[in-house]
Every structure is written in structure tokens, then in C-alpha cells.
Amino acid sequence: MAASPPEIPSFDPEVLHQMAFSFIPSRVLSAGLQLGVFSHIAAGRKTAGEIARAAAASERGTRMLLDALVVCQLLAKKDAQYELTPLAAQFLVRERPDYLGLSMEQDGLWESWGHLTEVIRSGQPLHRVEEREKAEQFFPILVRTLHVLHWNRAQRMARALGVGNPRTGLRAIDIACGSGVWGIAVAEADPEARVTAQDFPAMLSLTREYVKRHEVEQRFDFLPGNLREVDLGADRYDLALLGNIVHLEGERSSRDLLRRLHRALRAGGRVAIIELLPNDDRTGPPFPVFFALNMLLNSEEGDTYTLAQYTEWLQEAGFARVETADIGSHSPLIIGWKN
Predict the structure, then answer these.
(1) Whose CA is closest to 314, among 273, 268, 266, 264?
(2) Upper half-sphere CA count for residue 128 (Cβ side, 13 Å)
(3) What whole-number distance in Å separates Cα of residue 94 and Cα of residue 175?
(4) For the segment 287-338, what is each residue's pLDDT rounded down to a tens digit?
(5) pLDDT for 268-288, tens place per residue?
(6) How many CA atoms lie within 13 A of 272 on its CB side?
(7) Could you say which residues of the chain have pLDDT below 70?
(8) Its pTM surpasses 0.85
(9) The CATH number of 132-337 is which of 3.30.70.1350, 3.40.50.150, 3.40.1350.10, 2.40.50.140?
(10) Do 194 and 221 form a contact (C-beta atoms < 8 A)?
């Protein structure tokens, strides 16, 4: 009697097909922003023809793009007319203060990730955005998006640290501050706080813009320079803020920075680290794991690091204890305490 053929596991290959096309929503969003679709709809243009004319685009292509944006839940459609969803109305209209799309309009991510295979082979990044010249070109665009993205988290961070209640009169330093979003949240929560914003000189011009917009410029000082070289002093601050900078700097620079920050903090001072934390096995959450590849593409030594790694580095730098706090992000806030 002939043996029965082995049973073949029943897997649906469609999941792989869908994965291969999963770049489409990103490109649909970028095209919508580049063509100003959301602004045109906000201005009262509702049909594919009206929007196409305003965007100087083909009606056929515009209709397909609009329908794709409906599938992405960024537009709603009824009787061949399109409306903004609440999410798009708040964040994707260029003329509104919470516009999130400035960096999403750019093709930089698309172009960088197109070289992923060759970068993995070589181990050499396509860009080095941590270097001053590249940083001063790259980050002014990204930072405007990140300010909107991080503002609510920055306010939650300030509450988690007890800024303004019960802690008042804090002296804080915001390292590689960008827009200053984390330091601004401290200044707003504690009217007696004073914040030092540290970054490359061209970036501090942008910081000054945001500090003025939030009406806290009288309580900010500015420390220009490369975070790897700038003098942070000793026993000077109650709070040091590291907002999404370690993943770009890499392990070697970050461990040195933590040692220097420990020296710069007064007794009882804290360092607050806002980062992307994969789990100890680096199997999730998805975004921190994926983002490590973004650092491979765009930095010499950047990576994402686990809570266990941060704990080890903080203890090595002299911090007596390490805590975490939920700030409504994909990763918790890390707090290192100096005795």
C-alpha cells in the first residue's frame, strides 16, 4: 500500500502579497500632501475635478488618489464628494498650526529605504545625519513635524516628573533640543523653571522660534555646540532631558554623555530619557525594532536599545536608581536618579 503524501501546512500566502504592497499607504499619504489635497478640500473643493484643477493634476489620477485616501481613513466620500476626516483636518492641512506633514511631504525616507539591502551588505550608512552639516540641513524640516507629534507626550512627561507640582524652580538642560519641545513643556509646567537649550547653532535658531511662540523665551538660555564636545559643567542642573537623541548617537557616545550629565546634575537630580525601546529579545514592539534599520541607513553608530541596556548604562554612569513612567507613547519614559 502506497504511503500517503505528507500533509502540507495550510498557510495563506496572501499575507506575503499584502506585505509586499504595504508601502502603498505611505506613498498615498505623501502624494496627497505634495499635491495639497487636504488644503484644497479644506478650502471648499469637494469633487475630484475641482481638486484636480486646484492641484494642477490629472482628474483620473486625482480620483484614484482620493479614493485611496478614503481607504486610509483620511478622507470620507459621499455622492462623489470628498470631506476631511477629523484626523486629517487637524494635522494634514498646511495652513493650520498643527500641520504634521512637512517631513511627510519629503521623499527622503523613501529614497533612503530603497538602499536598505546595499546598506545591510556594506554596514555603511547612506547618510550621517548626526554630523553637523547634515544635521543642520535635515532636522529643521523633521523637527517641525516632531514638535506637533511630541507635544502631548512632552506635557505628560512634565507631569510624570512632577514638574511644577510638587517640584518648582527647576534648572533643566534639554540636550540636542531641536524645537525645544521637551524643555518648553517643563517651562510651561513650572513658571519658576529655567531651561538651557543645547544644540547646533542653526538648530537653536529654530528653537528660539518655538520658545517665542510658547511665550517662555525669558526663561530660556542657549548653549550652542556639538553635544559630544560641549561643556555641561558640574552640579548645575536638577533635570537633564534626552528626547529621542540616544538612538541617533549610538552606544559609545551615549554612554559618555550619560557620564557627563551625571556630573552636570546636582545631588537628587534626574535624567529623563525619551526613546524607542524594543523588548529584551528585540522581537517587538514593531516600531522600535523597525526604527533600528532607519538608524542603520542614516547614522554611523545609531540603533535602538532595550530598557536593560539603558539601566546598565545609567548605573555605570553613577545613577543610583532607574525608574520608568508611562507618557502615552510606544515606549515608557526612563528616569535615572542621582544621589
Answers:
(1) 273
(2) 8
(3) 29
(4) 999 999 999 999 999 999 999 999 999 999 999 999 999 999 989 999 999 9
(5) 999 999 999 999 999 999 999
(6) 29
(7) 1-3, 5, 8-9
(8) yes
(9) 3.40.50.150
(10) yes
